[in-house]
C-alpha cells in the first residue's frame, strides 16, 4: 500500500483542465470524422458519377470478368452443330478470298488482247493481289482481336467486293493493277478465319477444324481454274471479275446473317453489360466488367496504341522463330500453287490440248482430282470429330 508521501496530489488548475478537455475533444472529433469517412467514402468524393457508382456497388474496385466466370456462354460451349455451321460459312469466306486470287489467271488472255500488253505483264494483276494479300492479312488480323471477328470480316469482304467493280469496268490496264492491289490489302484471309477456330475449340480439340479451314484456302485456289476454264471458253474476260463479285457478295450476306461474334473478349464485354443490366432491373446491381470496358476508349485507340497494334504481327514475324518458319512454309506452298496455276495452262495449251484439240475449259479438269484429294480426308476428319465427345 502506498504511503501518503508517495501519492501525488491532483492539480485542479482550471486553465489546464480546459486545455486538456479541448485537446481530447478535438482528437475525438477527428477520430470520429475519420471513421465516418472510412465508412462513408462518398463524403470525400467530388465527382457525381463516382459517388453514384459507389452508392450502387459499394466499392470503387471493378471486378474484371474472366473466362471461368462465363465459360458456358463463350464460343467454346457452342453446340457442335453450331460450331460446324459457323465454320462452314467461314469455309466459304476463305474460299471466296482465294478464289479471287486464282480466277484472275483465266482473264490474262483477254486483258493482254484488249489493252495491248504482253501476257507476262497481264499476270502482274495476279502477283499484285497476292503480294498485297500477304500484307493485308497482317494489317487486319490485330483489329479482330480488339474489335471482334464479325465486324473485321464484314469490312474486309465489303472492301474486297467494292474494289472488284473498278477492275471489272477498267478502261485501262493501270486501273486493273491499282484496284487489284487495293483488293489484296483489303483481304483479311486466314489470319482471322483461323482465329475463329481458336475462339470455339480448345487447343487439344481443334486439329480437325484447323484442317477444315486450311483446306478451304487450298480449295479456293483450286476452284478458280476449274470455273475460269469455262469462263475463258464461253464469256468475255471481264466475267472473271464479275463472278468474283457475285460470289463474294453472296458469301458476305451469308456471313452477316448466320455467323455470330466469337471473339472471347468481345463476348465477355457483352455478357458483363447484360448481367449489370439484369442486376439493375432485379434490384441487385452487379459490379462486373468486361476486359475491354476497364480501359477507356481513348487509351485503347490512341495513336501510339494503333501503331503498336499494327506493328505487332511484323515484330512477331522477326522475333518469334516459330512464326517466321511457318510463315515461310506457308509462302512456299502458296508459291507452288500459283506457279502451277500459271504454268499448267501454258503446258496444256501447247501439249495435250493442242494435240487433242480440246477446248480451254478441259485444260483445267486436272484440278478436279486435286480437289478430291483434299476433300476426302477433310470429310473423314469432320465425321470423326462430330462422333467424338467435345471437351473443354
Q: How would a textbook summarize the main sheet?
A: 2 strands, parallel
Provide the CATH superfamily of the domain at 79-262 and 359-387. Answer: MFS general substrate transporter like domains
Number of helices: 17
Radius of gyration: 33 Å
Number of E strands? 2
On the 0 to 100 scale, the average pLDDT is 75
* CATH architecture group name of the domain at 79-262 and 359-387: Up-down Bundle
State the low-pLDDT regions, or none.
1-18, 27-46
Helix percent band? over 70%
Structural class: mainly alpha
| Beta-strand percentage range | under 5%
Q: What is the name of the CATH class of the domain at 79-262 and 359-387?
A: Mainly Alpha
- Measured distance between first and last alpha carbons: 79 Å
List SSEs in N-to-C order.
Answer: HHEHHHHHHHHHHEHHHHH
CATH topology value of the domain at 79-262 and 359-387:
Growth Hormone, Chain: A
Cα shape: elongated
Major sheet: arrangement of strands: 1-2
Amino acid at each position: 500500500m502506498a504511503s501518503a508521501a508517495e501519492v501525488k496530489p491532483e492539480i485542479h488548475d482550471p486553465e489546464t483542465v480546459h486545455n486538456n478537455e479541448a485537446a481530447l475533444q478535438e482528437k475525438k472529433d477527428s477520430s470520429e470524422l475519420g471513421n465516418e469517412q472510412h465508412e462513408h467514402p462518398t463524403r470525400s468524393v467530388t465527382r457525381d458519377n463516382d459517388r453514384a457508382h459507389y452508392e450502387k456497388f459499394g466499392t470503387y474496385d471493378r471486378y474484371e470478368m474472366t473466362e471461368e466466370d462465363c465459360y458456358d456462354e463463350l464460343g467454346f460451349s457452342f453446340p457442335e452443330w453450331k460450331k460446324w455451321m459457323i465454320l462452314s460459312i467461314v469455309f466459304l469466306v476463305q474460299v471466296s478470298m482465294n478464289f479471287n486470287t486464282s480466277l484472275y489467271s483465266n482473264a490474262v488472255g483477254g486483258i493482254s488482247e484488249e489493252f495491248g500488253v504482253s501476257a507476262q505483264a497481264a499476270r502482274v494483276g495476279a502477283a499484285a493481289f497476292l503480294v498485297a494479300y500477304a500484307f493485308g492479312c497482317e494489317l487486319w488480323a490485330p483489329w479482330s482481336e480488339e474489335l471482334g471477328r464479325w465486324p473485321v470480316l464484314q469490312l474486309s469482304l465489303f472492301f474486297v467486293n467494292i474494289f472488284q467493280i473498278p477492275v471489272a469496268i477498267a478502261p485501262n490496264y493501270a486501273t486493273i493493277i491499282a484496284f487489284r492491289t487495293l483488293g489484296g490489302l483489303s483481304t483479311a484471309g486466314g489470319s482471322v478465319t483461323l482465329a475463329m477456330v481458336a475462339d470455339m475449340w480448345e487447343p487439344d480439340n481443334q486439329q480437325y477444324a484447323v484442317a477444315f479451314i486450311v483446306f478451304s484456302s487450298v480449295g479456293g485456289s483450286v476452284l478458280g481454274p476449274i470455273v475460269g476454264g469455262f469462263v475463258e471458253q464461253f464469256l468475255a474476260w471481264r466475267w472473271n471479275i464479275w463472278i468474283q463479285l457475285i460470289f463474294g457478295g453472296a458469301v458476305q450476306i451469308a456471313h452477316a446473317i448466320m455467323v455470330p461474334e466469337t471473339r472471347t473478349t468481345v463476348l465477355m464485354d457483352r455478357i458483363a453489360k447484360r448481367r449489370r443490366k439484369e442486376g439493375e432491373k432485379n434490384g441487385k446491381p452487379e459490379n462486373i466488367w468486361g476486359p475491354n470496358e476497364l480501359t477507356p476508349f481513348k487509351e485503347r485507340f490512341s495513336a501510339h496504341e494503333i501503331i503498336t497494334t499494327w506493328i505487332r504481327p511484323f515484330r512477331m514475324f522477326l522475333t518469334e522463330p516459330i512464326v517466321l518458319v511457318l510463315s515461310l512454309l506457308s509462302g512456299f506452298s502458296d508459291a507452288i500453287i500459283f506457279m502451277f496455276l500459271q504454268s499448267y495452262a501454258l503446258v496444256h495449251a501447247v501439249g495435250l490440248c493442242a494435240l487433242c484439240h480440246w477446248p480451254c475449259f478441259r485444260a483445267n479438269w486436272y484440278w478436279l482430282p486435286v480437289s478430291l484429294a483434299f476433300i476426302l480426308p477433310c470429310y473423314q476428319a469432320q465425321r470423326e470429330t462430330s462422333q467424338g465427345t467435345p471437351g473443354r
